[in-house]
Amino acid sequence: MTPNLRAVGLVLLCAINISLALLVIQRNRHSPINRLFCLSVFAIVGWIATISLSLNSTDTSQTLLLGRFAFAFASVIPFGLLSMFQAFETSSSKLGRPSAKIAAFFCCALVAASLGPWVIHDAVTGNDRPNFIYGPLHPFFAAYFVI
Questions:
Q1: Alpha helices, DSSP H only, in the chain?
Q2: Strand 130-134 with 120-125, pairing
Q3: d(Cα 64, Cα 86) in Å, to the nearest integer?
């Protein structure tokens, strides 16, 4: 696929997702589920855009900066989806679920860690594209995302 076609596809994908999020929030902006859906969609779009731009950059400092933002956006995705899914549950089914405050703490901690050298330490030029040198908290980030 040519780079121009790839860029058009990326812009189209992001625009469709943002349009869907805006449609949902316009339907009922006071609904917690709608707000959480929009948070999740904007985090996903932010991740898609920044990781794509970072891995297509030829400047390693730009790759590093965009990569850190990509991991910060990605840190919000599990929190947003978990919170949205929990908003659908009845009060009796919420027993035994992790607290939203704990999830919010880990989300905020990983967003902050992602913006420094703790998740992505550096970026280097690779054969086909730039590569990341991961920091000491990258395994923790991966565990958070999977859990």
A1: 3-27, 32-55, 60-88, 100-114, 138-146
A2: antiparallel
A3: 34
Taking the C-alpha atoms of residue 70 and residue 111, their distance in angstroms, rounded to an integer, is 10
Question: How many Å apart are CA 44 and CA 17, to the nearest integer?
Answer: 9
Model pLDDT for residues 101-139, shown as the tens digit of each residue: 888 999 999 999 999 999 999 999 988 888 999 999 999
CA pair distance 129, 127, nearest whole angstrom: 6
Rounded CA separation 144/147 (Å): 5
Q: What is the pLDDT of residues 63-79, one digit of tens each?
A: 999 999 999 999 999 99
Residue with tokens 């609904």: 31
**Contact of 18 with 41, CB cutoff 8 Å:** yes
